[in-house]
Specification:
The complex is a heterodimer of chains A (251) and B (236). Chain A has one domain: Orthogonal Bundle (MetI-like fold). Helix content of chain A is 80%, strand content 0%. Chain A has eleven helices and no strands. In chain A, helix 6 crosses helix 8. Chain A starts with 7 loop residues before the first helix and ends with a helix. In chain A, 34% of the residues are buried. By secondary structure, chain B is an alpha/beta fold. Chain B has two domains: 140 residues, 3-Layer(aba) Sandwich (Rossmann fold), CATH 3.40.50.300; 80 residues. Chain B has eight helices and six strands; from the N terminus they run βαβαααβαβαββαα. In chain B, helix 5 links the parallel strand 3 and strand 4. The longest helix of chain B has 23 residues. The radius of gyration of chain B is 18 Å and the shape is globular. The chains are: A mainly alpha (251), B alpha/beta (236). The interface between A and B is medium-sized, with 20 and 24 residues.
Chain lengths: 251, 236
């Protein structure tokens, strides 16, 4: 059987539909314990309740703020440190071991420390998002700049360009391309940091709601929240995809 | 490695340097332009490095800049205002037959077109001496012949001094006023110079039919072969 790739989405949606119907049917037939495995309609109800009462907005705002704050800070600091380390050997010597160490550990284990240092407010979540993103971007930029085509560098030099011209016309555009290449991973990391931070200690946010749902054994709410986070991240992917397309129009 | 080389390129003169690989032809150009230091001694040129232009085999255009932005780049480094630089860039692109392609990114140009942009990029700076290191080697035959003819016409009209490094003897003879032969490395030297008495303006294809071409070609070929076999004998 040959599959027409342009109809892949039809098949995917059909499969999803079948799965949801079977799931709902099994729940309706009493084959699933609603305590562990709520049906799609129960999850949907939990989701609409969040929006009907309006209680979700403050949590969404908290998580968004933490994730975007950590993302932007992480990219800015990661790029600056990566460029400096790639261009100045002394900085590379000092920074690389630290970054390698930070890269080797699951950085979310720093969450309790950030809570002690920065409290249960927004700052500790931003910090966790930031550390997750910054290390990733640092390595992207650091290894990326070392792979810059020597010929482009020589070209700028022979045309009369100075060090600043190299940074501006060769390194920064190259860095932009690599950062955009790992932007999706970075966005994922940023939300991971925000949610885990809220999970550990918070008074609002999607992570806080999740931990609340867990302590009250509310599986429907947990799944509704997981679904909501997926939608949010997909939305941000779409926006970053647009940005990427525009910035990399030369490619 | 090359030892004790001394070359003269006169006003409006086109000079080629041919020699076996490993004789240090490319290193010489890199040393002259300042990309590489000589192992010992120093490089002296009458022309300041900022007044030199160099063209390599790879066009090395910035992929994220359009053709005109790539050409305007060097003009900007030399202090020209952006608007003036863009105007000048368009003029040079037109001179190299690329009118209408100003806003293309390198990725959307053919190999020959990219080579023309690279040429415009270098020539726009009006170098006192243009260095070329096998600049046409990566092009296919027809594109190559057409670019070479355009370059010759431009060089003759603008009276640009050129030093070309190549291992293509036909190319060297067809383009040059003088061809220098390098001996086999290590410790390569410039062994001989061969003036090319074919009149200008030249048609590069017709130049091959000039009565002086064939004897010169044979002479160069046998001298070059001797260099290469001398190395083989020394290695044995």
């Amino acid at each position: 059987m040959t599959l027409n790739p342009s109809y892949a989405w039809v098949r995917q949606f059909a499969a999803l539909g079948v799965l949801l119907v079977l799931w709902e049917g099994a729940g309706y037939a009493g084959m699933l314990n609603p305590l562990y495995m709520p049906t799609p309609s129960q999850i949907g109800r939990a989701l609409t309740e969040l929006f009907e009462t309006g209680s979700i907005w403050t949590h969404l705002e908290a998580t968004f703020g933490a994730a975007l704050g950590g993302l932007v800070l992480g990219i800015v600091v990661g790029v600056i440190l990566g460029v400096l380390a790639a261009l100045i050997p002394l900085i590379a010597e000092l920074l690389e071991p630290v970054m390698t160490l930070l890269n080797a550990i699951p950085r979310v284990i720093l969450a309790p420390l950030f809570v002690i240092w920065l409290g249960i407010g927004l700052a500790s979540k931003v910090a966790l998002s930031f550390i997750l993103v910054a290390v990733l971007i640092f390595f992207t930029v650091f290894t990326g700049i070392r792979q810059v085509d020597r010929k482009l560098v020589e070209r700028i030099i022979t045309l009369g360009g100075d060090r600043w011209a190299l940074v501006r016309h060769v390194y920064l555009p190259a860095v932009t391309a690599w950062v955009l290449g790992s932007l999706k991973v970075a966005i994922g990391f940023a939300f991971t940091g925000a949610c885990v931070g809220e999970f550990v200690a918070a008074s609002r946010g999607l992570g806080y709601l999740l931990s609340f749902a867990q302590s009250t054994y509310n599986s429907a709410l947990i799944m509704a929240l997981v679904f909501l986070i997926m939608v949010v991240v997909l939305l941000i992917f779409a926006i970053s995809g647009r940005l990427e397309k525009w910035l990399l129009r030369w490619n | 490695m090359l030892e004790g080389a001394s070359l003269e390129v006169g006003e409006g003169q086109f000079v080629s340097l041919v020699g076996p690989s490993g004789s240090g032809k490319s290193s010489l150009l890199r040393a002259v332009i300042g990309l590489q230091k000589p192992l010992a001694g120093l490089v002296e040129t009458e022309v300041a490095p900022s007044e030199l232009g160099i063209l390599f085999q790879d066009d090395a255009l910035l992929p994220w800049r359009t053709a005109r932005d790539n050409v305007a780049l060097g003009l900007g480094f030399h202090g020209m205002e952006r608007q003036a630089a863009l105007k000048e860039a368009d003029a040079w692109l037109a001179r190299l037959g690329l009118a209408g392609f100003e806003h293309r990114f390198p990725r959307h140009l053919s190999g020959g077109q990219r080579k023309r942009v690279a040429l415009a990029q270098v020539l726009a700076l009006r170098p006192k001496l243009l260095l070329m290191d096998e600049p046409f080697a990566s092009l296919d035959a027809i594109v190559r012949a057409r670019i070479i003819q355009d370059v010759v016409a431009l060089v003759e009209r603008e009276r640009i001094r050129v030093l070309l490094v190549t291992h293509d003897l036909e190319e060297a003879l067809g383009l040059s006023d003088v061809v220098y032969l390098l001996s086999q490395g290590p410790r390569a030297r410039i062994t001989q110079s061969y003036p090319v008495p074919i009149p200008r303006p030249r048609d590069v294809v017709q130049a091959r039919l000039h009565p002086a071409f064939a004897p010169l070609y044979e002479q160069l070929w046998s001298d070059l072969s001797r260099e290469v076999s001398r190395e083989a004998a020394e290695a044995a």
